[in-house]
Amino acid sequence: MSDNVVPLKRKNGEERPTLAPILSLTATPMNAVNAIILDRMQSEIPLIPALAGHLIAGGGKRMRPMLTLAGAEVVGYQGTRHHKLAAAVEFIHTATLLHDDVVDGSEMRRGKEAANIVFGNPATVLVGDFLFSRAFELMVEDGSLKVLKILSSASAIIAQGEVDQLTAQRKIETSEERYLHIIGAKTAALFAAASRIAAVVGECSEDEELALDAYGRNLGIAFQLVDDAIDYDSDAAEMGKDRGDDFREGKMTLPVILAYARGDETERRFWQDAIAGFTTEDEDLAHAVALIHKHDCVSATRERARHYAQRACDALDIFPDSAARRAMVQAAQFAVARGY
Q: I want to staple 196 with a disulfide (CB 3.0 to 4.6 A). Which of 22, 213, 223, 275 is the partner?
């Protein structure tokens, strides 16, 4: 991909984008969604709500369910079906986080100890399975086969993406193309599905469905690109996780792919050893960060994120101007400007 990336269309002097507009737009329906989440994570087995609540109550931007709620506003939907579906989206996301933390051996999530550290790996995996089951219950209750197909297909794609990422781990030859395919599956698929189902419940045209799908998909890619840049660009206090997790786990994210491609022979040998797991101490991480900044790889990764964010914004052009559409545009702008 070229470094000549289309910039986001922003006016001179415009303030730094925030999530405030979309948070305000979705505040009332999000209260309903949170009530559903709280109700459906309950169980007669005390460990289930305790472990699920550890992660769900731990914060997070709730980006995915917000996209369902905001999309419903954009298409003018007046009902409440999207409340349960947004909760289903959040349960799918939370389940994947629980499973991810076990696979990665993560110690922090959203600024606190990861569930697998507090409750152990077996309980974390099983409660993730419970949340997946709750998500599918909510989908079935909605009664739309089309919604069920969209969200179940996204769940399968996410799982495949995670397996693909696992098989690419510690492989220095991983290409940018494969990396983008991985994040398109493990992250962008749920963003796309969360956005698209708003058009389904709103009984919109196929073009409008595809527009919201494109918005979510491109936003998801931009979001993950920035996450991967942040791992080499921010401290743990900002990120809510340990800095350098991706490095120590041997993940071939875009900053590393670019640094390896742009490095000299000595630098490439360092990356080969690091990704293979031979050099993962703090001083090795510091050297990795230095090389990534030497070759401007964080900036290049954010530039690619801006390209996808602009594509997300452009996809909304099919809808008339509204506060909801502007809020979704600013959410995409925030996704690439954020430092956490």
A: 213
